[in-house]
């Protein structure tokens, strides 16, 4: 995967970064940490400059997230009703929860979108419920761009200063992502065991 990223970046420059970041958000297994980190290394070598790199990465992130937001927006949350009625036990929610979640996204969803930009594996997933709740296009785009710009800047700067040692971060990022995933799975199982439908 790293060789593919390096080759595409070398071939396409900032456009390559843009394409990779779009793909990273449409197909989450592609790691943004590596894409922007290698971009930062390219800046340190004089092959790129920092601001256009961050801009290309951020625009790609927004486009990739908007793909899932648009799907959710087109579907709407009302189409979930039969699915929730049938599988609510395994989802640990009932229809009142869905209605409450939709209202929450309408009022404070921008903070969820912003904060989730810093969470591995959930950065893309939040776009779908935001769209299904019909969160404002402008709010979604602005807060996605804000969170993405901060995240991408941090990764690019880390790549710039760490240079070739940037890949050593995988030793920390990988276990941290696994630990977070395990915690979420355990939390789901705990909720599943304790969940009772509302009357």
TrEMBL record:
Domain of life: Bacteria
VTT domain mapped to chain residues: 30-160
Location, primary (coarse class): membrane
Annotated Pfam families: VTT_dom
Family annotation (InterPro entries): DedA_domain, VTT_dom
UniProtKB keywords: Cell membrane, Membrane, Transmembrane, Transmembrane helix
Localization, UniProt: Cell membrane
Membrane topology: Multi-pass membrane protein
Key word Magnesium present: no
Residues that span the membrane, as ranges: 6-27, 48-71, 140-161, 173-193
PANTHER family per the UniProt record, alphabetical: ALKALINE PHOSPHATASE LIKE PROTEIN (PTHR42709), UNDECAPRENYL PHOSPHATE TRANSPORTER A (PTHR42709:SF6)
UniProt-recorded name of the protein: Alkaline phosphatase
Lineage: Bacteria, Pseudomonadati, Pseudomonadota, Alphaproteobacteria, Sphingomonadales
Gene field: dedA2
């Amino acid at each position: 995967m790293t060789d593919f990223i390096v080759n595409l970046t070398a071939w396409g420059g900032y456009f390559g970064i843009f394409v990779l970041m779009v793909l990273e958000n449409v197909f989450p297994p592609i790691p943004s940490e590596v894409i922007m980190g290698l971009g930062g290394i390219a800046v340190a070598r004089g092959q790129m400059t920092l601001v256009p790199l961050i801009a290309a990465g951020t625009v790609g992130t927004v486009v990739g997230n908007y793909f899932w937001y648009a799907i959710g927006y087109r579907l709407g949350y009302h189409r979930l009703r039969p699915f929730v009625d049938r599988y609510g036990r395994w989802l640990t929610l009932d229809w009142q929860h869905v209605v409450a979640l939709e209202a929450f996204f309408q009022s404070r969803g921008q903070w969820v979108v912003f904060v989730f930009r810093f969470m591995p594996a959930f950065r893309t997933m939040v776009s779908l419920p935001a769209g299904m709740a019909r969160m404002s296009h402008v709010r979604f785009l602005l807060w996605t761009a804000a969170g993405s710009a901060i995240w991408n800047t941090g990764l690019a700067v880390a790549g710039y200063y760490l240079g070739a040692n940037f890949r050593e971060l995988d030793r920390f990022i990988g276990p941290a992502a696994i630990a977070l995933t395990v915690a979420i799975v355990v939390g789901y199982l705990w909720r599943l065991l304790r969940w009772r439908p509302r009357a």
